[in-house]
Request: fold
Amino acid sequence: MKRILVSKCLLEHPFRYDARDVRIPELRTLLKDFEIVTVCPEVELLGLPVPRPRLKFVPDKGTLKLLKEDTKEDITQLLEEKSREFLEKVGEIHGAVLKSKSPSCGLGDAKVYRCVECEESIGKAWGIFAKELRKKFPNIPIISEKDIDLLPQVFKTKS
Reply:
């Protein structure tokens, strides 16, 4: 059976930083022919609580840093390492449905802020977990919840 990785907040109880419920009830039905593997990189890989202060991408010397909004701690490298460790252990994945706009799971739509104290968005970036997933499994389809109407075409239901 093919295995699909899904952002845990889309299927289970609220995992978002603000504890808002973003579950998509029909997602389990759409993925009924797959083995579903869930993950919340921020909670399960980093051990962050729900709710929690936001994580923000901020430019720093030509690169992007992922900072905790409250402490300004740089967690970029830690999330990269934890993401790689998880993906090494998870086994074969045939596709993924990830949470849009997330600094861990966003598919090029996570906000980049001018500074950690700022609310001004100056660009968009791929989430750290999503980038590591794409590196580990470069040929699998990866979509956000915004594109679940495409799910039947993107993820063929034949095992």
User: Anything to note?
Assistant: The longest strand covers residues 55-60. The mean pLDDT is 94. The radius of gyration is 15 Å.
